[in-house]
């Protein structure tokens, strides 16, 4: 059996343990040394599953399990052990603010696992026994029942727990691999949390199916300390990390010279970043999806990457567009929201169509362009529709602009800006302010836009950005526009 035939991700692990037992599966991102071979990983997963069954054997009210996910090999072990032991895994991103972690743990209504308490009590099984035990467990996996709950980033509302099945996760990872093939010789480096959907499928799911090597890290700290002997060929990131990656490649950091594909999700890559990737011989993979769709809906491939587009639908999806709003149906649609039946019914129709809440444009070549969230669209008094995310992406391509958020407040368009240098200088040939030019190209003549300087940058810690770096507009509006001390006017112009 090849992994293309598996119905769950546990079976993919078993396949590699039987076919390639001594090959490296996981690599320590701090040392570059092997953390687990496929056989060692299988033994550890089996032993952890045995402990889960033993420790929580009397827990009859719930089979949910939360833990603080730090993006380390033990998180991967526990995830697969949950599948084997029949628990619903609920990872909590350990990089979220501590109070937010506590709220999500409480809302999960689950048993809790602490790695530091149980690590020394887990004794690995023999390989043959582990494979036999896990094969038995895999036969009992209900691929359509909740296997994983991922908390959404809460861009426009409170976070919700999204219930996903092994069918959701496995079919979506297969579809991503069809769009972006990878090989056993590849080395994937994770910089994003596997407690969120993008890394969970595009990193972890594709790793299990492809059998490549995988090293788990998190953010800039991993890039700063990357060992010279750890040379990834595949990285998925968000734009805030992509600049750092490109700067390090261009400065000659040896560990990043083998990178062949750089994936971008969550927020669109800028045109400047796209061109820099090409100049450095790196293929760009932009994609699109949401937690409720496991998450990948669209993905570019190495041969069709185009700036500002996210590729066509991946295998298995149907789509329809109503008033510019994207609806999808397919095997990746979630089971539902955790303990929120009414919210589930609002999100997914009886016919299985999921409302993404995003506005899209589909080009003649089948590629999708994401215009922004439908809830974010600003309708001016003259009926003109403003797409803030589109304008913000254009502004972020200007030199010196670190953050840009366009909001509508009390009848006025307000542009909140954070600069990496004192100011953006005027364009020499035209004498026009580049920000003014960008706004003039996107808005009707005479539209007034008040510019405000962000006295403090937006951050995940403050709750003003989601884990993937997108702005939480209601919170920003309340804090930065309703409270004068938080934002200081810079200047106001009619572009």
UniProtKB/TrEMBL annotation:
The cross-references to Gene3D superfamilies, in alphabetical order and at most eight, read: N-terminal domain of ligase-like
One term of GO molecular function:
acyltransferase activity
Q: Does the keyword Flavoprotein apply?
A: no
What InterPro entries does the database record attribute to this sequence?
A: AMP-binding_CS, AMP-dep_synth/lig_dom, ANL_N_sf
Q: Show the segment(s) annotated as Disordered.
A: 460-495
EC number assigned by the record: 6.2.1.3
SUPFAM superfamilies from the UniProt entry: Acetyl-CoA synthetase-like
Please provide the record's keywords in A-Z order.
Acyltransferase, Ligase, Transferase
Q: Please note every region of biased composition (Basic residues).
A: 470-480
Q: Which residues form the AMP-dependent synthetase/ligase domain?
A: 15-338
Q: Name one GO cellular component term.
A: membrane
Q: Which PANTHER family match?
A: LONG-CHAIN-FATTY-ACID--COA LIGASE, MALONATE--COA LIGASE ACSF3, MITOCHONDRIAL
Question: What is this protein identified as?
Answer: 2-acylglycerophosphoethanolamine acyltransferase (Aas)
Q: Which organism is it from?
A: Rhodopirellula baltica (strain DSM 10527 / NCIMB 13988 / SH1)
């Amino acid at each position: 059996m090849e992994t293309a035939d598996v119905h769950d991700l546990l079976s993919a692990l078993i396949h590699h343990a039987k076919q390639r037992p001594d090959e490296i599966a996981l690599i320590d991102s701090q040392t570059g040394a092997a953390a687990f071979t496929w056989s060692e990983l299988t033994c550890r997963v089996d032993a952890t599953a045995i402990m889960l069954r033993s420790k929580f054997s009397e827990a009859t009210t719930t089979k949910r399990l939360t833990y603080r996910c730090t993006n380390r090999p033990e998180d991967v072990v526990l995830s697969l052990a949950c599948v084997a032991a029949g628990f619903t895994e609920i990872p909590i991103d350990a990089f979220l603010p501590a109070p937010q972690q506590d709220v999500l743990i409480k809302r999960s209504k689950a048993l809790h696992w602490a790695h530091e308490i149980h690590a020394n009590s887990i004794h690995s099984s023999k390989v043959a026994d582990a494979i036999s035990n896990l094969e038995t467990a895999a036969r009992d996996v209900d691929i359509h029942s909740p296997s994983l709950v991922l908390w959404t980033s809460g861009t426009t509302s409170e976070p919700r727990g999204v219930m996903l099945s092994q069918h959701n996760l496995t079919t979506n990872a297969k579809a991503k691999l069809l769009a972006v093939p990878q090989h056993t010789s590849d080395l994937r480096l994770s910089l994003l949390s596997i407690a969120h959907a993008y890394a969970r499928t595009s990193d972890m799911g594709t790793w299990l199916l492809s059998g490549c090597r995988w090293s788990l890290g998190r953010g800039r700290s991993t890039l700063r300390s990357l060992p010279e002997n750890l040379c990834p060929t595949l990285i998925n990131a968000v734009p805030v990390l992509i600049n750092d990656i490109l700067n390090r490649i261009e400065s000659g950091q040896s560990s990043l010279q083998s990178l062949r594909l750089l994936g971008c999700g969550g927020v669109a890559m800028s045109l400047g970043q796209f061109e820099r990737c090409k100049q450095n011989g790196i293929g760009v993979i932009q994609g699109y999806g949401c937690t409720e769709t496991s998450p990948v809906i669209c993905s570019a491939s190495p041969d069709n990457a185009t700036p500002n587009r996210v590729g066509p639908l991946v295998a298995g999806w149907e789509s329809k567009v109503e008033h510019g709003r994207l609806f999808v149906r397919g095997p990746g649609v979630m089971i539902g929201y955790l303990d929120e039946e009414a919210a589930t019914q609002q999100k997914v129709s009886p016919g299985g169509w999921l409302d993404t809440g995003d506005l899209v444009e589909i080009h003649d070549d089948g590629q999708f362009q994401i215009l922004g969230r439908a809830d974010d669209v600003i309708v001016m008094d003259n009926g003109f529709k403003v797409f803030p995310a589109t304008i913000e992406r254009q502004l972020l391509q200007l030199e010196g602009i670190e953050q840009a958020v366009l909001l509508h407040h009390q009848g006025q368009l307000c542009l909140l800006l954070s600069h990496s240098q004192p100011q953006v200088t005027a364009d020499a040939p035209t004498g026009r302010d580049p920000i003014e030019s960008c706004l003039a190209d996107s808005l009707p003549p005479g539209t007034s836009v008040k510019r405000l300087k962000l006295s403090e940058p937006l951050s995940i810690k403050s709750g003003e950005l989601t884990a993937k770096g997108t702005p939480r507009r209601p919170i920003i509006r309340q804090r930065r526009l309703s409270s004068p001390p938080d934002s200081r006017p810079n200047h106001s112009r009619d572009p």
